[in-house]
Amino acid sequence: MRRWNGWGDEAETYPLSEEARRYLEERVGPGEPPADASLEEVTRGIPASRLPDHPLVTADPETRLRRARGQSLPDWIALRSGRVGTVPDGVAFPENDGHVVELLRFAREAGAAVIPYGGGTSVVGHLTPDPEGPPVLSVDLGRLWQLHRLDEESLLASFGAGVRGPDLEAQLRSRGYTLGHYPQSFEYSSLGGWVVTRSKGQQSLGYGRIEDLFAGGRLQAPAGTLHLPPFPASAAGPDLRELVLGSEGRLGLLTEAVVRVRPVPESEAFHGFFFPDFTSGLAAARELAQERLALTMVRLSTPRETETTLRLAGHQELIRLLERLLGLRGLGEGKCMLLVGAAGRPGQVRAAISEARAVVGRHGGVHVGRTFGREWEKNRFRTPYLRNALWETGYAVDTLETAAPWRAVPDLVAAVEVALQSALQPENERVHVFTHLSHVYPDGSNVYVTYVFRLAADPEQNVERWHRLKGAASRAIGARGGTISHQHGVGTDHRPYLEGEKGRLGLEALRSAAGALDPGGMMNPGKLVEP
Amino acid sequence: MRRWNGWGDEAETYPLSEEARRYLEERVGPGEPPADASLEEVTRGIPASRLPDHPLVTADPETRLRRARGQSLPDWIALRSGRVGTVPDGVAFPENDGHVVELLRFAREAGAAVIPYGGGTSVVGHLTPDPEGPPVLSVDLGRLWQLHRLDEESLLASFGAGVRGPDLEAQLRSRGYTLGHYPQSFEYSSLGGWVVTRSKGQQSLGYGRIEDLFAGGRLQAPAGTLHLPPFPASAAGPDLRELVLGSEGRLGLLTEAVVRVRPVPESEAFHGFFFPDFTSGLAAARELAQERLALTMVRLSTPRETETTLRLAGHQELIRLLERLLGLRGLGEGKCMLLVGAAGRPGQVRAAISEARAVVGRHGGVHVGRTFGREWEKNRFRTPYLRNALWETGYAVDTLETAAPWRAVPDLVAAVEVALQSALQPENERVHVFTHLSHVYPDGSNVYVTYVFRLAADPEQNVERWHRLKGAASRAIGARGGTISHQHGVGTDHRPYLEGEKGRLGLEALRSAAGALDPGGMMNPGKLVEP
């Protein structure tokens, strides 16, 4: 059973080691977990539905509660404390486009808002109902999960857009193909969700971002059906796929998505490297991207993330041995870890890794083999489970991210870290902040920041802490030329900063386009742009 | 001096060989050139400007005539016959954004339409003024041509968007960089024009399409200024760059464009191959794209294009020798030529070509060295000059293009060729049609069709012939799942087919977005979408 107020399956845990607990205690002080509300208690408090009955819609309180929020820190605080605010009035599980069209008709007649639900993994508040809004119908697209067509000649696969990561890959891999889109939320997040939030997979360097992989599909909008034919490229005016990518439910419901797939690579490898400092690591990461080596991943951690990773990894004896060996090569305090991935035929993987080693070597990096790469690979989808353990030890962990041209990256990293570290000073609370670059491009990189702070007993105080942290980081990002989000989307949490990035005119253009597909403003109101 | 009623510089010619003339005579009959109007005669007929005076605007008749049309066949017929229809009432040459803003104000107050003018190389009628519309101000952006900033760390270059191909490359190459965007119109077409028409360069496989190269910039719209910050990637809602890409002047004037550049490659090579038939060539081209080899170009000609190229190439003795040698390998009637390009360090080029040779060999292709590649390279921007010679021998030549998933490509090629070949049967005129694929993708390819037919003495009859041909081809493309344009854009010529591709709702979304930037519908009216 999936956790209703945390990450993942209840049977799965990722306990915090004693070493890790001590490390955090040193960094931010001892934690004290706040009291969680029980599922029974919270379910009992769910108000009656404001929607009329419909055979496709359930008003079951637990079903509604489980689709009320995503996985952002404010979502966690709401669910853990039981102060969940507005929950959907009904949930539907359409099994085909006919159902979706009927649900849109029903919602319009009932004066309801519609919130599309994919995997429920948003970390920026995409799913939060507007507390002042009309009744809410949550449309869970999870039953649109099948591979409908596989064109092996054109490498195009057509899926029900509600398909989740593991089901998508299983259906493709049984036929010898893969999409290769692996966001950390892979276990639950859905293809449609990836598209409408412009999600980036961990290996997007090799497999492409969802913007590259999404070739077309079908969107059911209140004003009608939008068909997006899967052309390899077109000059027939602006690309409507690009309007759907990042539309965050404001235009309609994506029911079908055609994606560009490829044969499963014969082999895959992740190699680890260490640099004496972040500056040399950054120069190497940039060169790896600008040399356009055939890699699937370049992931560089700052010294503090490197230290945190090593402290939280377990295997402390092995780590101490590694550190002694790196010390002999002159790498000590301030060292940075780099992971590099490649996939393809064995010869291609060897060639790519060997070219990467040459670049890394030129920048003073040391190759440490595949152990750290294997460790990362093993835990790539498990890490979110650590959030449960941290919460239960009294710590909140949250992430935020941006992207900018290479020239802006060092300042951006420093400014966001400083903003977060000092945001809770008025309360005398410390914040443990660490950063990595995980998506590099010839012209720039993303910047992915994790921050840990202590939970207060009072949920309001935790929300207040989060607001201070998020605000400080977002202002630092805006001032340093970063985008408000590289891979998480806008949702409710980034909306205050959207106009700063898109401009008044840009938002007006998006608002107008959305109005054409959703004239009544019934789709996910309060997100992205006003109706 | 640039030709006013044909392609290119008057000093440059590309004469038709006697062999080529004979070949065309065999295919479609002897040509008889229609009488051309003189520049003097046509200029004398230009009506007085309907615009009030403005210090930034000239009403000189020849200046206006020279910006009245592009390079489509209907444009040529209009200019050559002297029946040019509506010409702009004034032309402005802004030198900065302040001028552009002032010109938009002037046009609004004068109730005028604004048509942005880049290089005047549109082949689908982007520049044609609406004959029933208001007075027209043509804004020639050619004085916005400078490299403003080069960020060598992020490989980003910021240009005045009116810069033409050769000036753009010269400014970059003197600093060691290149954009690598080479459409056939390179000699005259402009960066801004590439962006707003979604132009594809001949080596887009290696350097990227303009969609990949355009990182951001500034658009001056009637409703204000749209700033597009150059992020490497973003998840902050739909990408507004993608609204500007393909906007065909309907949103405003692009004054600045930031592009992703790269160091000039150390070496570059184009190799030629021949296949026994189109089916095997197509299979090889597909595999080259799907194997994602590090190539810059894959260009496959049908048997008829191969034959036409060989007949029109000159060097007939060498060609006969080649054909004898290919004959010994079993390649005769029906053979197809493939050109493959690679760029980078010499070792990278060798490796890529050697991988390509392996793929080609598996499909029965024969390597013929670099002669044909060098010939193609030498003539890559010269071929349009052949249009002048053909016209003056009595032949019209036109091209059209589409793109589709691989599965649809063979049928699409056949259907478009048949449609064109039979379109003039009611007049008992033959049409010589030949095709190549020049932009391949893992999921599909473009299809680029050239057709030659005889000119009549009467310009109306030539327009009529073109309408029949264009209509027949466009309907065949729509019916076979191709896009109405892969690289030329919509303009006036493809507009009747746009709704078939985008759908009513899609067009409505674009119309609404355009309305936000250009509420009065003054920008290039009659193009893309209604105001």
TrEMBL record, chains A, B:
Pfam families: FAD-oxidase_C, FAD_binding_4
Binding site for substrate: 387
Keyword Flavoprotein: yes
Keywords: FAD, Flavoprotein, Oxidoreductase
FAD-binding PCMH-type domain span: 84-264
Signal is among the record's keywords: no
Cofactors: FAD
Sites where the protein binds FAD: 116-122
UniProt xrefs under InterPro entries: Alkyl-DHAP_Synthase, FAD-bd_oxidored_4_C, FAD-bd_PCMH, FAD-bd_PCMH-like_sf, FAD-bd_PCMH_sub2, FAD-linked_Oxase-like_C, Oxid_FAD_bind_N, Vanillyl_alc_oxidase_C-sub2
GO molecular function: alkylglycerone-phosphate synthase activity; FAD binding; oxidoreductase activity
BP terms from Gene Ontology: lipid biosynthetic process
Residues the record marks as active site: 448
Marked site positions, Important for enzyme activity: 299
Family of the protein in this entry: Belongs to the FAD-binding oxidoreductase/transferase type 4 family.
PANTHER family according to UniProt: ALKYLDIHYDROXYACETONEPHOSPHATE SYNTHASE, PEROXISOMAL
Name under which the protein is recorded: FAD-linked oxidase
Source organism (scientific name): Limnochorda pilosa
